[in-house]
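Archive maintenance. Older records in this collection stored only the sequence; we are now back-filling the structure field for every entry so that each record is complete. The fields below show one back-filled record exactly as it appears after the update. Entries are processed alphabetically, and Large ribosomal subunit protein bL25 is next in the queue.

ARCHIVE ENTRY
Title: Large ribosomal subunit protein bL25
Organism field: Demequina muriae
Length field: 210
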Amino acid sequence: MADKLTLVAEHRTEFGKGFARRIRATDKIPAVLYGHGTAPDHIVLPGHETMMALKNPNALLSIDIDGKKTLSIAKDVQRDPIKRTIVHVDLLIVKKGEKITVDVPVHLEGESAPGTIHVLEINSLEILAEATHLPEYITVSIDGMEEGDKLLAGDITLPQGSELEGDPEQLIVHISVPRTAAEEEADEAAAAGGDDEGSSDESASEDDEN
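Back-filled structure field:
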């Protein structure tokens, strides 16, 4: 089983924005624990410990309520749009051996060929993996890739026991050479000229036929 982080929680008996503001002022976070056919359990989490635990994507959490521990992962984390502090957490109950669908961040490593740049089109992959062995991230190497090279979702080697849930044809990263505005304009002009030439040839053919 993956390493798990224990958070000691309390049952929440009051509700509403006023109560939520009061508990946040004491460095606590309102949350809800749900899943596996159980009724949602409204709880309060310790603020600092929760913030530190959720720095790890898809962290496995052991929620301790009155001595009873429940495994879960954070399914949704709501943050203050300005302060970026956590204001609410949805926790999904998980069991050892079951598989769940999660988004896992993509980390790039290595350097593409000299003079090229890489563009990361999608920064996470949707995968199916065992709930107690969720990867924190998926490493993708771009070392030595050259202009025009691409990596699709289906090209990426996933951690053992994980399966791709999204489109295997989804573009993840591609390599290109930076171009100046003048070069781009020249390419566009050349392409437009080619189209005009093609149109002229077609017109000439029509005239010959007539």
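Update note: The chain has three domains: 5-94, 101-176, 180-210. The helical segments are 17-25, 47-53, 181-209.
Entry marked complete.
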